[in-house]
Amino acid sequence: MIDLHCHLLPEWDDGPESWEEVDRMIALAVEDGTEAICITPHYLRFSRHGNNPEILQSKFEEFFERYKDETRIRFYRGAEVFVHPDMIKHVKRENLSLNGSEYVFVEFPSDQVPAGTKDLFYRMMLAGLTPVISHPERNAVFGSQPELLYDLIGRGCLAQVTAMSLTGQFGTAVYKRSELFLKNNLVQFIATDAHDSKKRKPVLSKAVKVAASLVGKEKAQAMVDDIPLAILNNEVIPDWGSPLRPGKGRRRFFILGRK
After folding, report:
1. What residues contact 2, with CB distance under 8 A and at least 6 apart?
2. Which distant-in-sequence residues (6+ apart) come within 8 Å of 140 by Cβ?
3. Please, is 187 exposed, middle or buried when counting C-beta atoms within 10 Å of its C-beta (0-12, 13-18, 19+)?
4. Burial track 124-155 (b if 16+ CB lie within 10 A, e otherwise)
5. Can you spell out the DSSP letters for 45-80?
6. pLDDT class for 253, splitting at 50, 70, 90?
C-alpha cells in the first residue's frame, strides 16, 4: 500500500513532536503493510515556523538523511497546501507538489469552500498543476452540497478520502459522506492523514476493508496502490469510473484530459 498523505516531519506543524514519535509512526505503517509514504507537512497553515521554506527544506533534508538506510518503506516529498490566492507561486517556488509531479494537495477550512475556488483551480491547471482536494468528507460545505465536489472532480480535480473517516473515527456524519463520495466516484484514493502514533495513526488496511464493502475489493485496493503510484509517477490515474452527481438522476460528467 501507498500512503500519499502523512504528517511525518517533527516539530513543523501539528504532527509528531519528536524523532522518536516518527519512529513509532513508521513502525505502525510498516506493520500495517504500507510500502511507501509521501510526507505532506501543512503549508500556509499550522506551520510553527511561519512557512519558512528554508526551514522546511532543512527538515526534509534531515528526515531523508536519518532514514536513508530504511529498507522497509520508501519515502517521498510532498505537502498539504492551504487554499490561498497565491498558492501557485508557493507550490512552484517551494516544490510543494507530490514527488515533484503535477499533483498538489489543497486543503480547505472545515466549514468553507472559498468563492474563488473554481477560478483558482482553473489557474492551477493552466500552470500545469492538478489540484487534489484533501479529505472533502470532513468539509461541511462539501458534505451539505456534494454537487460542488462533483463539479470540481468533473473539471479534472482529484480528491482524497481519509482512512479514519471510512472507519467511523470522525463520526457518523463524516462516514456517511465518505460512503456517498466513494459510491459516486468523487474520491479517487485513500490516505491516512496521520499525525501521530496514538490518535491519528498511519493505518490504511482497516479503511481498505470498509471501502471494499462499498465499491469492491479490486477498486478499494487500487485506491491505495495503482492510483497513488500513478500520482507519484506523474501519470494519469487509472480510470475507475466518471464522477456521478449524487441524486438528481446521477448524471455523468466527462473528465477533462490532463497531460
Report:
1. 34, 35, 36, 37, 38, 224, 225, 228, 229, 232
2. 110, 111
3. buried
4. bbeeebbbbbbbbbbbbbbbeebebbbbbbbb
5. SS-TTTT-HHHHHHHHHHHHHHTTT--S-EEEE--E
6. very low
Query: In terms of residues, how long is the chain?
Result: 259
Domains, the chain, ordered by start:
2-237 (3.20.20.140)
Ranges of beta strands (E only) in 123-250 are: 130-134, 158-162, 189-191
Task: Report how far residue 93's alpha carbon sits from residue 53's, in angstroms, rounded to the nearest whole number.
Answer: 9
pLDDT digits (tens, 9 = 90+) for 44-62: 988 888 899 999 999 999 9
The CA distance from 191 to 6, in Å, is 8
103: left (phi over 0), alpha (psi -120 to 50) or beta: beta
pTM above 0.90, yes or no: yes
215/198 Cα distance (integer angstroms): 29
126-137 pLDDT per residue, tens: 999 999 999 999
**3-state secondary structure at position 6:** strand
Using DSSP's 3-state secondary structure scheme, residue 4 falls into strand
